[in-house]
Amino acid sequence: MLSKYYAQALHKSLQGRNRESVDALFANFIAILRAKGHMSLLSYILKDFARIRGKEEKYNATRITVADKSAAKRYTEEAAEYAGQAGFEAKGAIIEEDLSLIGGFRAEKRDMILDRSFKRMLIELYRKFIAA
Amino acid sequence: MDNVIIEKIKKEIENFSGKEKLEQVGRVVRAGDGVAEVEGLTDAVMSEMVVFDESEGMELQDAIEGAELVYGQVLNLEEDVVKVVILGNAGRVKEGTLVKSLGKVLSIPVSEEIIGRVVNPLGEALDGKGKFSIANYMPIEREAYGVIDRQSVNAPLHTGIKAIDSMTPIGRGQRELIIGDRSTGKTTLAIDAILNQKNEPKEARPVCIYVAIGQKESKTARIVAELERRGAMEYTVVVSAPASVSAALQFLAPYAGAAIGEYFMDQGKDALVIYDDLSKQAVAYRQMSLLLRRPPGREAYPGDIFYLHSRLLERAAKLSDEKGGGSLTALPIIETQESDVSAYIPTNVISITDGQIYLDAELFNRGMKPAINVGLSVSRVGSAAQTKAMKKVAGKIRLELAQFRELEAFVQFSQDLDENTKRRIESGKRLSEALKQNKNMPLGFERQVPIIYAAVNGLLNQAPVERVGEVEEKFLAYIDMEKPEIFEKLKRDRDITEEIEKLLKEALSDFINTHNELFAK
Q: Model pTM greater than 0.90?
């Protein structure tokens, strides 16, 4: 648990720093661990740190899910166009496939989602019809 | 039939706008005990409504065949996660489920058609009569009207119960607590108040909302059946959050009832809402708060337990004429344990409301029904709204009854009583008897006035105690037959004019002369 707290603190401290200050911060971090007798936690701290970074990278990446891999290019282009409009960075986006979408695409980044899949449209149409 | 459906679908398709819209989402990282921890939803606001989207990864067929949507309400905003209470089947929410923010606070659909229906706190029909049309969505949590938008309580809300309408009158827009131990007639009193609205003229009849919180479904079903049998569902809505539903729904039920009431109040109409009962709501809220890891306080209730009830009851109001003059009267119910009115929740609600009707288990066991303890019951604003007729006849009743109860206790230790004390005790006994009333037998105010007039003016003193009920019944029947104009005039003038008093006196003496057998001791 302590390693997790150290990793989180390190991760937060590193945000928005340049190379030189990062080196200095790491040196300070190691010195503090040594002074507190927590050097044995270092390997766990680094593992937790890597997990936090990985999670954040995944969270920050734009993911575009398309229905059909064979038509991925067409959908990706369309997705990129819409995604760009909606503030997503289509360049370098992770492309995933989900057959259940039927057609169209779904773009996701951080806590925003743009769903242009046929599945969503059909579900909405169904619910509207049922409610009427 | 087929063509109708095809045309309907065609129209839907033509008008369908599949416009892309950016939605704020989160993902469930932990779920259990009706609470979901959600990562994301960074712009979520307190009490915001969210929907759990289970369709991700599902085939279309499965997604549309799934049951109703599962909604949630944001209740904790924390640094990394948002805690959401699940309003529905919590078993369907899994780790990784997509959560979509709906950008609005939790609301309940309302329209005129909700009258006569049994709904859950989300406005979904529970009576199998299908959906009702939706005219508006009312926010479940809403700030109460301010001072400028209100006027003082000035119109009576008759409950049909002699003891209440004469001694602790309730006004439209008032908050009157009904408090007592289990099985002392709290719900009966509230249901009688609903039934009695049938005696009011249609244009002045309030819309009644009965909110059942944490009750047995069989009890709610019995109440609905009784209301239906007596034709009271014509103007009543039942909001049911039985003991079998999640604590979140039980917590929301009174707010949903208030929201429905406000819909009618905002239209300038009168509404009466009964919260049966707020003790169970407090318990549900305590459960939720502990699951949300909020710090527990006294009796493990969270720190904002007072605010839970004050913000609800503050929504009861009599609106100013500029705002349409509508009203929302609240009759919250609190169940005490071992008659302890000084417990945490009872004292909170007593201090919030404009008075309380205290039902005494001891009186109930002695056969005094309704078991209203006159000494502990009070209405702080209702007397301003009491009809003149009732005010004139019932002015002395409270004092006489209180004196009688005191003397009654004293008599247990003393044998030799002076004539005056004996007379007071005999008169008190008859007065108590006159205030007895059977379950589900509310009396219109015009029928209560002659009885209380007779009791106060000594008519009942001439009858044996055990025949007081019979005298009452026959006296009313006599007026019905011989002098029906008394009821008509009382209903119209709402005052005891000289003419009415003369008629009443005549009716009394004629009745005594023609019914000697009732007065033979």
A: no
